[in-house]
Amino acid sequence: MPPSRSPPSRHRSLARPRILAVIAPRRFREEELFVPLALLNHPLDVTVASTRKGPARGMADAVYPVEATVGSVARVRFAAIVVIGGDGAGSLWDDPSVHGALRCHLADGAVVSGICFGVVALARAGVLAGRRATVYPDRRAELELSRGGAVLTGDSLAEDGPIVTARGPAEAVLLAHSLLARLGA
């Protein structure tokens, strides 16, 4: 008698969904990285990247050892991408590798998100046009979102299709929970 064959599995893959967190090499906001990392890193596979490898220093002098550049993971497909804010996030606003990653992942159906000043990178990449979004309450940041065609909500968290934006450090937990829910983790 031949060995029995099991029918093909209909269960989801056991691989953990992958998420890309993008931080500035200097003056990223620690709470906006470390709080979501603590909540996301167990059920998800989180890669932290920046515009350069090496130690990234936060606004409160915490150091994160960045092992990948955004460009070096450009061909990796992530289920979500999040751009972290902080005073240094302005270095990400016009970075071509960040823009390319945001556009590519949105086109592939990934969740695209940002928090605080990181949201401006989404606006400048053109992914917020016609979408509801929120950003840290700063006149320049709000102007950048308006220029990018976003519909500013002023809410703590704004969700519009595959786009999730959070206002600032106080909303880091909300952002993490939204990503967990969207990725089924």
Describe this structure in words.
The protein has 185 residues and is an alpha/beta fold. The protein has a single domain (18-182), classed as Class I glutamine amidotransferase (GATase) domain (Rossmann fold, 3-Layer(aba) Sandwich), CATH 3.40.50. 26% of the residues lie in helices and 25% in strands.
Total beta strand runs: 12
Shape: globular
What is the annotated CATH architecture?
3-Layer(aba) Sandwich
From the alpha carbons, calculate the radius of gyration and give it in angstroms.
17 Å
Sketch the major β-sheet.
7 strands, mixed
Defining traits:
single chain, 3-stranded mixed beta sheet, 185 residues, Rossmann fold, 26% helix, 5 helices, 7-stranded mixed beta sheet, alpha/beta, disordered N terminus
Summarize the structure.
By secondary structure, this protein is α/β, with parallel strands linked by helices. The protein has helices at 30-40, 96-107, 119-124, 139-147, 172-182; strands spanning 18-22, 26-28, 45-50, 54-58, 63-66, 68-69, 80-83, 111-115, 132-133, 151-152, 157-160, 163-166.
Task: Produce the secondary structure layout.
Blueprint: E1 18-22, E2 26-28, H1 30-40, E3 45-50, E4 54-58, E5 63-66, E6 68-69, E7 80-83, H2 96-107, E8 111-115, H3 119-124, E9 132-133, H4 139-147, E10 151-152, E11 157-160, E12 163-166, H5 172-182
Parallel strand pairs: 1-3, 1-7, 2-4, 3-6, 7-8, 8-12, 9-10
Antiparallel strand pairs: 4-5, 11-12
